[in-house]
Specification:
Elements lengths: L7 E6 L3 H11 L3 E5 L9 E6 L5 E7 L14 E5 L6 H9 L3 E3 L4 H5 L1 E5 L5 E5 L6
Parallel strand pairs: 1-4, 5-8
Antiparallel strand pairs: 2-3, 3-4, 6-7, 7-8
Length: 133
C-alpha cells in the first residue's frame, strides 16, 4: 500500500499566505505548484509549494471564514537533509523573506544544522547530514 514512490502532502494553516509563500519560495527556493485563484465561499485559500516533479509538496491553507491560528511548538519541524554545510547566504535569504534564525529545542539540530522559524512560527531545519546518516 505504501512504498518509496508514495506521494506525500504536508498541510498546515497559515495566518498570512503571502508571507508564508515569500518565505518558502523567495527564501527557500521552492516553486508554487498550485494555488487557489479565486475566493469561493466555504473553501480554503491555499498555496502548494515544492519542487516540480517531486514526490512531495507543502500545502499552506487559510480559511478566511473560520481562520485557524497556527499553533506551532518548538518541535514542529520541517527538516531538509542537505548532505552539505548550510550556506549562510541561504539563511540570509530566509531571514530576508520573513524568517528568524532560532536555537533548536533539541541540541541535535544545532549540532547538525540551522533552524529558521517561518512567519507562522513553524521551524525549518537545514540539516548538514544526509538522509539515513
Amino acid at each position: 500500500m505504501i512504498d518509496s514512490t508514495t506521494k506525500v502532502r504536508v498541510a498546515r494553516p497559515s495566518r498570512d499566505l503571502a508571507a508564508a509563500e515569500r518565505f518558502y519560495v523567495d527564501g527557500l527556493g521552492l516553486s508554487v505548484l498550485w494555488r487557489s485563484t479565486e475566493r469561493v465561499s466555504g473553501e480554503h485559500d491555499l498555496v502548494m509549494v515544492g519542487l516540480p516533479g517531486g514526490a512531495w509538496h507543502f500545502e499552506l491553507t487559510r480559511d478566511p471564514e473560520q481562520p485557524l491560528e497556527p499553533t506551532p511548538t518548538v518541535d514542529d519541524l520541517f527538516v531538509l537533509y542537505l548532505g552539505a554545510p548550510v550556506d549562510e547566504a541561504a539563511v540570509a535569504r530566509l531571514e530576508a523573506a520573513g524568517g528568524k534564525r532560532v536555537p533548536a529545542h533539541n541540541p541535535y539540530w544545532d549540532e547538525f544544522g540551522v533552524t529558521v522559524e517561518d512567519p507562522d512560527g513553524y521551524r525549518l531545519v537545514l540539516c548538514t547530514r544526509t538522509w539515513g546518516a
